[in-house]
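Chapter summary example.
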Amino acid sequence: MSYYASFQGRVYLGKRDASGNPIELRTPGNVAELKLALKTEVIEHYESQSGSRSLDHRMIKQKSATVTLTIEEFTKENLALALYGHFVQSPTGTVTDEPLPAGVVVGDRYALAHPKVSALVVKDSPGALLTLGTHYTADADFGAIQFLNLASFVQPFKASYSHGAVTETGIFTQPAPERFLRLEGINTAQGNAKTLVELYRIAFEPLKEISFASNEYSTTANTTEASDGECGSESGDQLWLDARRVWLEGRQGRQLEEAWGGGRTLGEGPGSRHAAGEAGRW
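The structure predicted for these 282 residues follows.
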């Protein structure tokens, strides 16, 4: 019997408490791609006695892991994570006599300090009112004014208005975010067998690019790097996964255990969240 794999599922990202336990798990929405890549940097030694200069030893110098996560839903939480920022909710309010730039030119567009504008009133320096549709047009959603006719008005102009609440997300206002990642998935090649993947500690790199003008669906593709050896800790000749696990339902789990050398050391590492006696099902 063949055992193939094709995975789908729901991804959750969370923080960790002081004890290392995951908290505040939330889903970023549809994740089109989730990949884990493991890498080792190896030093090779060649003997100098036989005349053949043969390779006689290889030593692993460094281990690293990279997770590629493609998120398709644009939410304030996802953007903040991808941009190393945080979002703030600006409340509704009113503005009185906001000065516009001096030297306004007919046909140019001028942005107000706030979007979502209503009850807009524009006047010149002495206080004469401009007429909407005759002297200027306004884009209320974006908070912008375009002048049509300056007539004999005296600049600079002033704008008074009310504005709605908006969510603003900064860029590079926060340190590199670290998250606990959990995939609650299914293996569609094995009758939707349940699949659980947990990555204990991943550090996100900033978003490589974001397409604000495109004919395709935009995504936020993040690459994450392992932090402080979270993909493995070494002690003597044993290797364990510190509170990281990949669990596959049924026979798949046994195959994975065999592929990883029996999994006997799972649960023996510091900070492990499961007992050593449970290692047979990881």
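To summarize the output: The chain has two helices and 18 strands.
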